[in-house]
């Protein structure tokens, strides 16, 4: 569905039927918009993998469809490492999957403004030399600053945003009709910094919307952080939610939802949609695709190969695990736990360490104890992250409490009494 049709349908639903964009009946204060539709995702270095790995790309499209993602912020830096043809093929494929594709800049500090200016110019040039299907739909500016000298940096950034619509040689951001968005860190608006500048950037007329980085792992704190920027603004904005696993053991575990999982993302999303600060809330942007979203979806398939057994029989569980990232293999050290809950509980564990971006078949066998009571056992499989990693993403320590990444029901295993046949 193209952007205009999505916008019209969304406006009809929000205005006429009172439906949550999250899919459940209720009262939502999400603003209908022609430039953003519900959910976006950041893709940094994995963008280059998606250009050359057809299987990883297919899984990406399955995930974006399943998760309701409509917009992709695609790293220009990563795409610059591949050929023009591969870059264009990926953009065309994403459009074919119904996705908006925005070139993502990732720069830091005062010099980052000049870097962002060069990226915007290169994206405009790319579009000027490309067919409609190969062109970016927008540009997402991710320019971050240190706290020292923040006021000067934000003033320079505001001046840069004034220039953005006319950047280009002949063809410009404005003439190409590109959607323009930019990240705003929530802490820019704290009293010890320059709140007025932070809000001026969030509401800048060159932006179709801002993306507020109000990272935390509880809805209440996320809302408070959002409010510091947008509580008195009517400007459209998107909430960025952090999902990635950070290196180290404890330093950043509150700013990400990695440990809490996808259910916490949905909880935050629902809470903000129901009661957003400000008047311009559009939806969420998930940061980021590789590590977090892909880890939660690493248990790609699981099947119980028997439905009825006797004590002493062997039961086989076949699974497929894939970590779509570019990390060392040691960072994937995880544990599969198969549980059988019935008249008695049994578990079997298996350590797994699959390589990056490779569908890995892993089978686990369990022998039914000879004294196992007859009856029905609910079988489940759980994939858990058991390790911490260092800055190089190598395994560095063992978690005292593993993070549950995914859990699947395998169905019912019936254990028969050999003297009586089938269980009651």
Automatic annotation (TrEMBL):
Name the record gives this protein: Fibronectin type III domain-containing protein
The species this protein was found in: Natronococcus amylolyticus DSM 10524
């Amino acid at each position: 569905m193209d952007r205009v049709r999505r916008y019209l349908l969304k406006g009809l639903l929000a205005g006429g039927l009172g439906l949550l964009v999250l899919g459940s009946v209720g009262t939502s204060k999400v603003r209908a918009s022609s430039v953003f539709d519900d959910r976006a995702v950041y893709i940094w270095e994995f963008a280059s993998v998606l250009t050359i790995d057809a299987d990883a790309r297919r899984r990406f499209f399955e995930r974006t469809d399943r998760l309701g993602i409509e917009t992709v912020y695609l790293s220009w830096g990563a795409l610059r490492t591949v050929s023009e043809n591969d870059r264009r093929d990926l953009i065309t494929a994403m459009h074919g999957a119904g996705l908006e594709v925005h070139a993502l800049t990732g720069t830091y500090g005062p010099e980052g403004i000049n870097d962002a200016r060069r990226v915007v110019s290169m994206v405009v040039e790319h579009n000027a030399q490309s067919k409609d299907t190969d062109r970016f739909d927008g540009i997402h500016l991710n320019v971050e600053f240190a706290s020292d000298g923040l006021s000067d940096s934000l003033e320079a950034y505001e001046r840069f945003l004034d220039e953005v619509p006319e950047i280009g040689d002949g063809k410009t951001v404005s003439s190409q009709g590109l959607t323009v968005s930019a990240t705003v860190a929530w802490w820019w608006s704290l009293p010890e910094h320059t709140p007025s500048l932070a809000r001026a950037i969030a509401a800048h007329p060159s932006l179709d919307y801002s993306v507020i980085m109000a990272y935390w792992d509880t809805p209440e704190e996320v809302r408070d952080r959002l409010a510091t920027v947008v509580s008195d603004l009517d400007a459209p904005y998107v909430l960025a939610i952090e999902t990635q696993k950070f290196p180290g053991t404890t330093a950043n575990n509150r700013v990400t939802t990695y440990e809490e999982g996808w259910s916490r993302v949905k909880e935050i999303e629902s809470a903000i949609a129901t009661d957003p600060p400000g008047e311009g809330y559009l939806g969420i942007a998930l940061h980021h695709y590789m590590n977090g979203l892909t880890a939660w979806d690493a248990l790609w398939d699981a099947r119980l190969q028997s439905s009825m057994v006797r004590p002493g029989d062997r039961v086989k569980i076949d699974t497929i695990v894939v970590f779509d990232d570019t990390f060392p293999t040691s960072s994937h050290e995880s544990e599969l736990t198969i549980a059988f809950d019935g008249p008695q509980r049994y578990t079997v564990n298996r350590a797994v360490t699959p390589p990056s971006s490779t569908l890995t078949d892993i089978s686990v066998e369990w022998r039914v104890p000879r004294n196992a009571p007859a009856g029905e056992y609910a079988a489940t499989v759980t994939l858990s992250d058991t390790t911490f990693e260092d800055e190089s993403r190598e395994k560095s320590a063992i978690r005292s409490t593993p993070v549950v990444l995914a859990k699947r029901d395998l169905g019912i295993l019936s254990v028969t009494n050999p003297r009586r046949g089938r269980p009651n």
